[in-house]
Automatic annotation (TrEMBL):
Binds 1 heme group per subunit. This is Cytochrome C556. One of its GO terms (cellular component) is periplasmic space. GO terms for biological process: electron transport chain. Residues 1-25 form the signal peptide. Keywords: Electron transport, Heme, Iron, Metal-binding, Signal, Transport. Heme c binds at residues 139, 142-143. It comes from Rhizobium oryziradicis. It holds the Pfam family Cytochrom_C_2.
Length: 150
């Protein structure tokens, strides 16, 4: 094996190691829950655009946004195992692990609010605004207690 082959082989091993590190970081609960919150933020942003009249009412967007919130809320509490209290720039408050039952109750409130709004499916801009108010209240309530202020 000449030096070019050795160099290429070493480079491939380094790149493969980096890919493994990135893949394992992506699976960390802190990273997963941050991605889940980004999905909720995106869904809320889509609804806010409609509620503010910046975007036209679109039933498919409303349904997809509410479905995203419902799904995330259902699975979000599963992303807080012991040992994931710190790292990866988490904004999770230690209070989550101190009072997991209340945390799960607040996540369930978001799921219920999204499910209720999804079942009624707001039919216009005003309905979307009302849905945001209801859902946003559950988000804010949880963030007040269980999210670190950065």
């Amino acid at each position: 094996m000449n030096w070019k082959h050795t160099t290429i082989a070493a480079l491939c091993l380094c790149l493969a190691g980096g890919a493994v590190s990135m893949a394992s970081a992506a699976d960390e609960p802190q990273v997963v829950r941050a991605a889940m919150m980004k999905k909720v933020g995106g869904a809320m942003g889509a609804l806010a655009g409609i509620a503010k009249g910046e975007k036209p009412y679109d039933a498919a967007v409303v349904k997809a946004s509410l479905t995203t919130m419902q799904d995330v809320a259902k699975h979000f509490p599963d992303q807080f195992p012991k040992g994931s209290e710190t790292g990866f720039n988490t904004e999770a408050s230690p209070k989550i692990w101190e009072d997991m039952a209340t945390f799960k109750t607040k996540a369930k409130a978001l799921e219920t609010a999204a499910t209720t709004q999804l079942a009624a499916l707001p039919a216009d801009q005003a309905g979307v605004g009302a849905a945001i108010k209801t859902i946003g209240g559950t988000c804010g309530d949880c963030h007040q207690t269980f999210r670190l202020k950065k």
